[in-house]
Amino acid sequence: MEVDIAQALTRLAPKLGAPGGSIENLQRLSGGASMETWAFTAVAEGVRKELILRRRPGPFDEETSRSTSLATEAALIRAAEKAGAPVAPIIHLAEPEDGLGEAHITARISGETLGRKIVSDPKFETVRPHLARQCGQILARIHSISPEGLPLKSADALGELDRYEAVYRHSGAERPILELAFQYLRKATPPPIQDVVLHADFRNGNLMVDPDKGVAAVLDWELSHLGDPAEDLSWLCVNSWRFGRSDKPVGGFGEYQELLEGYAEAGGAEIPLSRVLYWQTLGSLKWGVMCLMMYESYASGGTTSVERPMIGRRVSETEIDLVHLMEAGL
After folding, report:
1. Do 202 and 76 belong to one domain?
2. 229: Cβ contacts below 8 Å, ≥ 6 apart
3. For 90-103, how does the pLDDT look when each residue is reduced to its tens digit (9 = 90+)?
4. What pLDDT sits at residue 33?
5. CA of 227: how far to CAs of 68, 150, 154, 283, 298, in Å?
6. What digits encode the pLDDT tens for the residues 199-217?
7. Domain ends where: 72, 91, 107?
């Protein structure tokens, strides 16, 4: 069903703190295949509020999906804010009578999300040396969130290996490095520890970074689940998210020690580097399989977007990363 976004937001203006006001500068931003993101301004009596609408235009089954519902995402953002993590605060969770479908509205936070700019633009020189420690502190706060009342699924290392190997086998691909990585990681699986609430896509590119304050907001909570805290710490370290700065293992801007020290300083449990490196290797393998699937979706005619094969060719990058990680050992 087509939704008139401008009309729906105008009706919603009183709930957004703009009674009798109007909606201006409505603009569709880039987004995934299943989600829409819109920027707009709510104006009333000379007061302007810069806001972001995130909505799912199609049906959604939380039971079978890897993603959370937007209601769960909103609850996570509120819980993270209460725990002291920087977020884009929830302004409104859409109700059926709002006419927007499944959606929520947050404040719009200023800053930069483009990873390549964050690791190289001179305007971030002041904050860049502090970002890894800051990320560790933020993750410790996220991991302190109580999972009670949050309908989150659980995932562990062996479960992730099973899932991604099944996808890989179904693809029919034959990539010797990926084959070796699956075997290697199954033999090296660390013992389980207490699950925590994970962001699960915490990386350079999903962080809003301010040139004066550092991380201003953690974005994109839809993959959140319960699991090993090292999964979050390591995903930030996967080489694919360093944007050309492979010499800086944490997001292209910092060192492992800074990340882990920041995590401990904010109350996080002690996590050995070996555990982070295990999950980093698993993260590189997962991204390699995802790259294969991106290419397959294009080659099969499922999508015509050139973005998919462009990402697909990056599987070779993950294979190089995996060779280096496996040679270094865990």
Report:
1. no
2. 139, 143, 193, 196, 198, 268, 269, 271
3. 999 999 999 999 99
4. 55
5. 15, 14, 6, 14, 32
6. 999 999 999 999 999 999 9
7. 107
CA 131 to CA 108: how far, in whole Å? Answer: 21
- Report pTM: 0.93
What whole-number distance in Å separates Cα of residue 140 and Cα of residue 232?
A: 10
Which residue matches tokens 């990402």? Answer: 311
295-308: average pLDDT: 71
**What is each CA distance from 285 to 49, 165, 296, 304, 317, in whole angstroms?**
42, 10, 17, 25, 11
For position 1, what pLDDT does the model report?
56
202 and 156 share a domain? yes
Helices 256-265 and 131-143 meet at what angle, rounded to 10? 40
Please tell me the chain's helix, strand, coil percentages from 3-state DSSP, rounded to the nearest 5: 45, 15, 40
Query: 63 and 81 in contact (C-beta within 8 Å)?
Result: no
**14: how many CB neighbours lie within 10 A of its CB?**
12
Q: Identify the residue whose tokens are 């295990």.
A: 278
Burial of 241 (0-12, 13-18, 19+ CB in 10 A): buried
H or E segment at 93? strand 90-93
Whether 41 and 99 map to the same domain: the answer is yes
Tokens of 153: 């699924």
- For residue 167, what are the domain limits? 115-328
Q: Is 80 exceeded by the pLDDT of residue 302?
A: no
Provide the residue type at 90 as one letter.
Answer: I
| CATH, residue 86 | 3.30.200.20
* 119 and 101 part of one domain: no
Q: Determine how many CB atoms are found less than 10 A away from the CB of residue 108.
A: 16
Residues 120 and 222 reside in one and the same domain: yes
